[in-house]
Amino acid sequence: MRLFIVSAIAFAAATPAAAQTAASTNNYDGFRGEVRLGWETPTVSGDGDVYKLGSAVSYGAEAGYDLSVGKNVTVGPYASWEQSSVELDADAGAGIKVGRNYQVGGRVGTGLGGVLGYVKFGYSNIKLSLTDTEIDYSDTKGGFGGGLGIEGNIGKNAYAGIEGNYSDFGKFEGINLQRRQLAGKLGFRF
């Protein structure tokens, strides 16, 4: 009887600790929303050369849902919107301005010793504007984008992370258009 009581007490004491440990290694699921601040470089390429349209700050937000499908694995959809401040002024008074970029897709994450590492892939759409003294023209172009990132929890529901992104929009007015970005983020899980 004495062994049974000691075993029951040990089991009762160990169960909350085990549950807490399991929760702390996989508490990356649920709805999430984040704000993002990045540095981006849209580029064009042709004839074997790559040209930067400029480098500048981007800012925006992302919303998503992460579903736990294993001890350390999450999957889920996301949607992001970002505004760019990249602007290229030509000598003749004309300029190219990079506007908003949005992306919808999915991501897969895995727990890496207290943080979540993930890869994401989706459809991306960018807006470019041409301005000079006589005309003001803008157009959008869709393509595919993806990213690699890492995020860690701050307290119970908040998280912070860093992410690298790349999008390829294919041919735009006869030239290849890409977007590269490195962003920091701060988010909240609901």
UniProtKB/TrEMBL annotation:
Transmembrane segments: none annotated. It comes from the Bacteria. The keyword Signal applies. Keywords: Signal. Pfam families: OMP_b-brl. InterPro entries: Autotransporte_beta_dom_sf, Beta-barrel_OMP. Residues 10-190 form the Outer membrane protein beta-barrel domain. Residues 1-19 form the signal peptide. This is Outer membrane protein beta-barrel domain-containing protein. The lineage of its organism: Bacteria, Pseudomonadati, Pseudomonadota, Alphaproteobacteria, Sphingomonadales.
